[in-house]
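INFO batch 0412 | record 1 of 1 | parsing
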Amino acid sequence: MAKPQRKRCPACRITKWAYDFGGQPHDGSPHRCKSCVRKGWWAEGETLPSLDALRQRVAPETYWTYPLTAHQHRSLKAQQEGRCAICDRMARLVVDHCHDEHLLVRGMLCSSCNTGIGLLGDSADRLKRAAEYLERPILAKRPSGTRPPTRSEQIEAELLRRELSRVAADSTPES
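INFO prediction complete | emitting tokens
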């Protein structure tokens, strides 16, 4: 049995097993490991940063998206005391930026809040309307003491409905 080969990734500069790399590129250039490819490190033709430059950065995916050094990233997180700028929860924070001016960093948010404002198109107006919507009176309310049906109860009711409609269709007199 052949011994597994090890290879050094030119992007992250970590020696990994050969199976951590994809197939060989056709042009013969060094191939990046799968995790670096997934993170989108170093597009074709781009030069690799020095090891010192890598150490200054938080995470390459953060650096390539926003020009933050590790120190700036830590400062921003410390300024918010490790809490989301919107919901104030302690959570893993992501960098929030203005989509109109891509390089403008607004702060750090938990992924739920970041996704929420992203889905609202980063529009303060839409966010205000969503807040007003949530504050409106509730139009319909489930009677107290009741609960929504479980999935198995929903399936059982659907099967019963189908059976009743089949029986009704079978019992209709033919003309």
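INFO post-check: The radius of gyration is 27 Å.
INFO record closed
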